[in-house]
Amino acid sequence: MAADLSAVQAYQAAIRTAQQSSLGSAQDAASGGAGMDFGALVTSAVADTGQTLATAEQMTAAGAAGEAELIDVVTAVSAAEISLETVVAVRDEVVKAYQEILRMPI
Predict the structure, then answer these.
(1) Per-residue pLDDT tens for 34-80?
(2) Residues 63, 55: contact at Cβ < 8 Å?
(3) What is the torsion angle, in degrees rounded to the nearest 10, for the CA atoms of residue 11, residue 15, residue 17 and residue 19?
(4) DSSP string, the chain
């Protein structure tokens, strides 16, 4: 059940971040600001992914010891897998964008 709660908490955090960025971009547009810092967003995503992976590892160990339900272990591992795939996809897009910038004529 703990894995279910962490997935819900991660979803709620993503919603809060999206709402804050949309509110921040509206306020920044009115004040002429730059908006949300991409580096901070990526750092936060990587930290959240690391936490999700650690939780999945703990749940796997608890499942192997017979202290956790199988569904909780599977849910935690699935959440970690999705989180890691998302970070890898973002990384790939950033690398692709960087390569495109390098190809631009000066």
Answers:
(1) 566 888 888 888 899 999 999 999 999 999 999 999 999 999 999 99
(2) no
(3) 180
(4) -HHHHHHHHHHHHHHHHHHHHHHHHHHHHHHT---S-HHHHHHHHHHHHHHHHHHHHHHHHHHHTT-S-HHHHHHHHHHHHHHHHHHHHHHHHHHHHHHHHHHS--
Nearest C-alpha neighbor of 6 from the set 82, 76, 91, 93: 76
Residue with tokens 């017979």, as numbered in its chain: 66
Closest CA to 80 of 49, 38, 37, 42: 49
pTM of the model: 0.61
